[in-house]
Structures are given as structure tokens and as C-alpha cells.
Write a structure and sequence with these properties.
Elements (H helix, E strand, L loop, with lengths): L2 H7 L3 H13 L2 H8 L3 H15 L4 E3 L4 E3 L1 H26 L6 E7 L1 H18 L3 E7 L13 E6 L7 E8 L1 E5 L3 H4 L15 E3 L7 E6 L2 E6 L4 E3 L2 H9 L5 E4 H10 L3 E2 L9 E7 L7 H15 L11
Parallel strand pairs: 3-4, 3-5, 8-11
Antiparallel strand pairs: 1-2, 5-14, 6-14, 7-12, 7-13, 9-10
Helix pairs in contact: 2-3, 2-4, 2-5, 3-4, 6-10
Amino acid sequence: MSASMERLSHINLNYLYVFVAVVEYKSFTAAAEALGLSKSLLSEQLARLEANLGTQLLTRTTRRMALTDSGAVLFDVARRLLGELDGALVDVRNRHDEPSGHLRITAPLDFAKWHISEVAAAFIKRFPKIQVEMIGDDQVIDLVGQRIDLAVRVGWPKDSGLHANKLASFEQTLVAAPEYFRDHPRPRSPQDLAECEWIAHTRLATPWNWTFRRGAEALEIQTRGRLLSNTTLSVYRLVLAGAGLSILPSFLVAGDLASGRLVRVLEDWDLPQGGIYALYPSARYMPARVRAFIHSLREHLDSEPFQPLARSA
């Protein structure tokens, strides 16, 4: 056996888990907590891995940590292989072990109210050893720092270094209450929106600017208005009150459109689709309770009105 092969045969698989966790969490302290190790033991195991391989994997200073070229090569392969291994182990373990423990979930206020609550109620009946804590918040929360197991994000999540699993898609829908059009003309084209009272959602990257498409035609429109809010629920309530027009997710307004409490505006124009995503710090260290809740949420979304809304004849 060659010297290099002999050195590799003595590598402890746990050392690879330590290495991948440190890179993913970007912190020795957070990685140690995730793996249930002391920080000193984690550092020792990482040093042993580097010694076994005969190369440095990370450069570390008091302010930052970065992969070396060798570390980048190993990380890409180790993350994929360990992920596949852990997935198989979890599947085997879940055949016998019932999910248990405390599950912390964050989601936007409107989504938590209408969807997470319904899923959680059924989830604790199915798994009596689970305790679910729901945190409704339209702000982006630091999952690692706040010890959040799972975040549900609606729209277009930014690249945050978290693992993202797309669960469903939905339409964005331009809507208004019928009462609004008693005192205002109904827009016939996207250009007419410049003269409408717009309700802006300030959590969006461009709350006043929208692109409407109809076939190959695309129009970029700038709106105006005197009402702004940083929550989807507030925008929704303002639209229901007849205060103006806004764009809301189809799953939120489908019932109101069916009942006539809201009407769809500019039906022959399309807006970009949004997505519903499950985000979590690491696919490898995902507890069974998190996997089970994601599965339950996906089943719930498959039965909800996330398909394109029917247009009026």
C-alpha cells in the first residue's frame, strides 16, 4: 500500500463531518453546537484531518476563515457524499424511530396564519412526541443565531448560504376591491396604473416598479400611492378595504376572488411567478422532525390553490 493510500485509510469519517460543518456554518462555535461537540474537540479533529491529508484545508484569522484550494476541492465532494450517506441513514432510521423533540419554524405572518398553523395542528396529532413553536415574522431571521430549525420563505429568497428546497409556485395577482372602482376608473392597460392609488409592500425590492407581460410584449410600470406597509397582511387588509390596488399572492386572494370580495385587474397581463421555499442551515444535520414537517407542508401545498387562477371568460 502506498504511503498516501495508507494515510487515507486512517481518516475518521467524523473528521469529514467536522470539516463540512465548519465550512457551512462559517463558525467553529456554531459547527460545534450543531454536532454536539466542544469547540476544542472540534478544532482537534479538524487538525487531525489536515494532518492525515498532509495539507491545510482552511486559513483562519481572528476575523475570517476561508477555504484553501485543497479545501475547496474536498468540500465539494465531501458535502455531496456525506449528504447522500446521511439521507440514506435517515431513511433507514425513520423506518423505526418516530420524530420527536422541539421544532422551531419561522414564516411570514400571512403564511404562518393560513398555512403553517394548519399543517402544525395536523402534525402534532400525527407525531405526539413533537412540540412545534411557530414564529411569524416578515423579517429575515438568522436561523443559526436564533436556533431556528426551518424557515419558510415566500417569493424569491436571496442567496443566504442556506439550503433551499422549493415546495410550490404561485401566481402574483393584481387585485382591488369592487368598492375602489366606484370612485376610480378601472385600468385598461398597465400604463393606466400610474393614475391609480397603489398600496406598496416595502419589504419587496422594488415596491413601486413592476413588469407586466403579454406574450412577447413587456411593459415596465412605475406606480404611485400614499399607503405603504412592510407586511403582506396589512397590504391585503388595505386592498380589501377599498383603499387601492396592489399585487398579492394567488394563494392569499383565491377565496376572495371566488366570493367577489376582490376582483382581478388586467387579467390578460402576466406577472412573474413566485415560489414557496423551505430553508434550513444544513441538509446533513437535519433532524427527522424537520424532514417530516417539510414533507407534511409539501403535501398541504399540493392540495392548496397554488396553480394559475382561471381567467374570466
